[in-house]
Amino acid sequence: MECLYWVLGCLLLAARLPLDSAKRFHDVLGSERHPAYRREHSQLNGWSSDENDWNERLYPVWTRGDARWKNSWKGGCVQAVLTSDSPALVGSNVTFVVNLVFPRCQKEDADGNIVYEKNCRNDSGLSPDPYVYNWTSWSEDSDWGNGTGQSQHNVFPDGKPFPHHHGWKRWNFVYVFHTLGQYFQKLGRCSARVSINTANLTLGPQVMEVTVYRRHGRAYIPIAQVKDVYVITDEIPVFVSMFQKNDRNSSDETFLKDLPIVFDVLIHDPSHFLNESAIYYKWNFGDNTGLFVSNNHTLNHTYVLNGTFNLNLTVQAAVPGPCPPPSPTPGRPTPSLVPAGDNTLELSGISEEDCQINRYGYFEATITIVEGILEIHIIKISNVLMPVPQPDNSLMDFLVTCEGTIPTEVCTIISDPTCQITQNLVCSPVDVDETCLLTVRRAFYGSGTYCVNFTLRDDASLALTSTLISIPGKDPASPLGMTNGALIVIAAIGCLTILVTVIAALVYKKHKDYKPIENRTGTEDKRKGLSAFLNHTKAVFLPGNQEKDPLLKDQPGIL
Ligand SMILES: *[C@@H]1O[C@H](CO)[C@@H](O)[C@H](O)[C@H]1NC(C)=O
Ligand SMILES: *[C@@H]1O[C@H](CO)[C@@H](O)[C@H](O)[C@H]1NC(C)=O
Ligand SMILES: *[C@@H]1O[C@H](CO)[C@@H](O)[C@H](O)[C@H]1NC(C)=O
Ligand SMILES: *[C@@H]1O[C@H](CO)[C@@H](O)[C@H](O)[C@H]1NC(C)=O
Ligand SMILES: *[C@@H]1O[C@H](CO)[C@@H](O)[C@H](O)[C@H]1NC(C)=O
Ligand SMILES: *[C@@H]1O[C@H](CO)[C@@H](O)[C@H](O)[C@H]1NC(C)=O
Ligand SMILES: *[C@@H]1O[C@H](CO)[C@@H](O)[C@H](O)[C@H]1NC(C)=O
Ligand SMILES: *[C@@H]1O[C@H](CO)[C@@H](O)[C@H](O)[C@H]1NC(C)=O
Ligand SMILES: *[C@@H]1O[C@H](CO)[C@@H](O)[C@H](O)[C@H]1NC(C)=O
Ligand SMILES: *[C@@H]1O[C@H](CO)[C@@H](O)[C@H](O)[C@H]1NC(C)=O
Ligand SMILES: *[C@@H]1O[C@H](CO)[C@@H](O)[C@H](O)[C@H]1NC(C)=O
Ligand SMILES: *[C@@H]1O[C@H](CO)[C@@H](O)[C@H](O)[C@H]1NC(C)=O
């Protein structure tokens, strides 16, 4: 009798053993599993419970330190890189993308085979065999290409057959996504993507894990595992960029008084969940100017006081969401009471669940407002007569004024007429006290058109203006090239010469009276201004136009 019990016991054990050792999805995929997952989270559309059995015979399971990982891929390890577009506003879709990174010199070709890149040298030199994995040959060796396609091994780890969409035989990787106690399996190339709708998910951070297998004859071999945290939130993810002309550093949250700051709100909504929503932006700039409500994501605001201000923004959007709890009156009839016609039932269901709720997003910042350089103008450009004739060189004086604070440094960049190729850059400290008025002297080598950029800066601000200037050609043999200094020498030679020279000098002066060709501030419409200049170059060279600027009388130091 005892013996019988013992035999029975053994039989029972033997019968139970395979059951006990049968792996479930949650045993394979993930350390992060909590027993309550399934109860806490609603079913994801198209996903399955990780209580399902895992076919370990077809999809072997290796622990993290298993030595077999080392040989799971020819020539090194495959890395899986998982990214998501989290954070996701509850109700929107969150999308995950896995990309496989192969060892150096390997890539997937158009047929889905893994090949060595041409002319790419790895440690052991160029490969004579172009293929790392010629899966085409494998699938033809096996019954892969069998018309029925129902072979035992063309299945996912849970036994479901591969979907036979176009080209599926060239898809050689099996991706198993796992989160919230559920899994999703997918056949793919070296990249796979999956989206989940977050409408019914719990808020907060979650973990997504992905395991990737590759074909290996009639079975599969794990090649990579990866996980990433994603976040589901009930606050609209909001980013705000702040821009201000003349602001020297756009990332230090310090801005200038009396110039508009342009605020641009970017809502992170990669799945376009808010496409149909009316979005309102409510601004409080913290300077007692009140509440600004706008439906435009860009807005500008000018602070007229210096100091520190706390600005805050609330973004509001009406989105599809759960309906309020049902009223005490009897709800809609249960499905069994509804007369025949599934369509009417579905329609009523949809319309009743089509509720809207307001979602909000918030942004706060503490910004510092300081005084800075607001404007810069070139008010006069004049030629400097040189004591010694210099055939091809010209010295020019630029009279520059500014508004706002007094700059500490002035820089000039001389470049080609397109303002792109720098030829010369000079910076000098500014040493003026009360009035912002400075003369900047710069040399030009050779005739032609030049673009001259002026920047004035102090600790917080940087103002820029740009002008085009034309330096006419000089013929060294002609008296037109003479300067004042030369005139004195000539005076000793004879009156006739002086007369000729004076006349010539007068003519020359008419040609050499420069005026600013373009005198703009800011960065807008530079290109437009430039082409306008090029079209009107002739007009600019009209003689005369001596500026009678009273400021010139007390000409400040030359920089
Ligand atoms: C380099 O290429 C050869 C083929 O020529 C291959 O056998 C070898 O595994 C490759 N080595 C590495 C490190 O990828
Ligand atoms: C890859 O396999 C296919 C099918 O067997 C074969 O036609 C092809 O020649 C193979 N390529 C190489 C380089 O072995
Ligand atoms: C193709 O499938 C049929 C039916 O399932 C089977 O009889 C046949 O042996 C298969 N061919 C190969 C080459 O495996
Ligand atoms: C959201 O994801 C689901 C799959 O879960 C997909 O069917 C649907 O088209 C996606 N919606 C958008 C707007 O991307
Ligand atoms: C969320 O749950 C509701 C109610 O159970 C259901 O009607 C809806 O289809 C679910 N949405 C998603 C995306 O699973
Ligand atoms: C701009 O401000 C940021 C933040 O204060 C600072 O890290 C960065 O170095 C500044 N950049 C420059 C060019 O001064
Ligand atoms: C949302 O708008 C974008 C661009 O305006 C468009 O590409 C996208 O298809 C729209 N998505 C939905 C779900 O309406
Ligand atoms: C926004 O700023 C105003 C005034 O500074 C303050 O009363 C309000 O509480 C702030 N709102 C938030 C959400 O911080
Ligand atoms: C938003 O404002 C900017 C400038 O303030 C303007 O160019 C743009 O057309 C506006 N957009 C809408 C949709 O009103
Ligand atoms: C700022 O807004 C005003 C009107 O609100 C507009 O006239 C001005 O052009 C805007 N400035 C910038 C830099 O967007
Ligand atoms: C505002 O600017 C004035 C003049 O530059 C200065 O005296 C004052 O200290 C500044 N105030 C603050 C709060 O920075
Ligand atoms: C000169 O300033 C203009 C903007 O006014 C800019 O586009 C250009 O790149 C600058 N040129 C150089 C050489 O810095």
Provide structural commentary.
It is a single chain. The protein is of the alpha+beta class and 559 residues long. The protein folds into three domains: 19-233, Immunoglobulin-like, CATH 2.60.40; 238-325 and 345-370, Immunoglobulin-like, CATH 2.60.40.10; 374-554, C2 domain (Immunoglobulin-like). Helices cover 16% and strands 38% of the residues. It is built from nine helices and 28 strands. The chain has helices spanning 2-21, 25-28, 37-40, 135-141, 342-353, 484-491, 495-512, 526-535, 537-540, and strands spanning 48-49, 79-84, 88-89, 93-101, 106-108, 114-116, 131-133, 173-179, 182-188, 191-197, 204-216, 219-233, 238-244, 254-256, 260-267, 279-284, 291-294, 298-302, 307-321, 355-370, 373-384, 393-404, 409-415, 422-429, 437-445, 448-457, 462-471, 520-521. Strands 1-9-8-11-12-3 form a six-stranded mixed sheet, with no helix packed on it. A hairpin with a 2-residue loop joins strand 8 and strand 9 (182-188). The longest helix is centred in the N-terminal third of the chain and has 20 residues, at 2-21. The protein is flat. The structure holds 2-acetamido-2-deoxy-beta-D-glucopyranose (NAG) (12 copies). One 2-acetamido-2-deoxy-beta-D-glucopyranose is lined by residues 130-131, 134, 136-137, 140. One 2-acetamido-2-deoxy-beta-D-glucopyranose binds next to loops. One of its GO terms (molecular function) is integrin binding. It is found in: Early endosome membrane; Melanosome membrane. Belongs to the PMEL/NMB family.
